[in-house]
């Protein structure tokens, strides 16, 4: 049975997934299908007990912390202003600097469980609610925040004697991320690569959305991908902003009842999310090749040197057979400060399992899961996290209006994104020409 894959690699001319030419990145999203218990579109079953690979934190505390983060994110999204920094919260709600910082850290916490480290106390949260009410934030949003805060502070004494003790436990579970030395090396490599290659961006996004199809045992897929502030450092450097197709893991075209865009006449309106891209956006033209890929290029002659632009695109495919094994792959082909790789999927489809993450080097013939092979896998410590359920979990510094963008695509397709679990790999200064490969194990594939 063939594995269903969405493949998108934003590249320069003459580059493909298995080539060695520098590319301009979003990557590959892969979904291998065959799942028991998929139902026709409607209310989806969601598991109520979710655990990360680290099981030292009680499930109830972890769930309460995720709900608290989601509630703070929802409050910030409900404010009239677009906010992605603490100073924005300080100005919007008239809070002091410390409280604004705590609210921001809780709303944008990653991993989500670290919201328990920085979240304000219950009394301080109620002062935030009062300030937000004066700004016209809906009562339902405020009620959910108060309920989440009460639940979180009720759960703390059941797991630790004090908030400080809980914070120590959370830090011991999540760690401090990459060592300072490794972080510095990746930052230095990013700066060197952008000078050598002549292009870079602030953020690369690859988001795969999976929904049960109307037919039992099948799914519909949508993909959002793009760059924030993509620019070139030298004249003449080509800027290909997209290279994509739906395919299996052998890169053979994937059959579905509907594939959009499916011809050159509707590429622009079906691919570019104009309301979330730069205005004006540089002229972009689309090429179709015999290999099944659609390539989208920005016209470099219309750009000034160091002129940055943001471009997001989307695609969909309908009625694809779903299997147990699920992969999401992102090839890093443009130097970027941050890679955000998200998968939005009903938790019932993956039985609440946490995916594995490997960072292999790009291999021309590496279509099989690399496991722990040292010859292929880079010794880089990254993680996948379950942020929670619904679009409130999507709040991301440096990526304004992301939840709104997901809602926009979901509305076009008649989907309810609030039913979906959000899995994320967030990688700072990802290694050039590496692949971020996220995989959900199946019971039949434990290797």
Brief sketch in words of this structure:
Helices cover 28% and strands 25% of the residues. By secondary structure, the chain is α+β, with helices and mostly antiparallel strands.
Structure in words:
The chain has 447 residues and is of the alpha+beta class. It is built from ten helices and 15 strands. The protein has helices spanning 59-78, 86-93, 97-107, 115-118, 122-134, 139-159, 163-174, 180-197, 267-271, 402-413, and strands at residues 5-8, 27-30, 199-212, 218-232, 239-247, 258-260, 284-288, 294-298, 309-321, 326-331, 336-345, 356-358, 384-389, 421-428, 435-440. The strands form three sheets. It has a seven-stranded mixed β-sheet with strand order 6-9-4-3-11-14-13. Strands 2-1-5-8-7 form a five-stranded antiparallel β-sheet, with no helix packed on it. A three-stranded antiparallel β-sheet has the order 10-15-12, with no helix packed on it. Helix 1 (59-78) crosses helix 3 (97-107) and helix 5 (122-134) packs antiparallel against helix 6. The chain is globular, with a radius of gyration of 22 Å. Residues 1-55, 255-269 and 443-447 have low confidence and may be disordered.
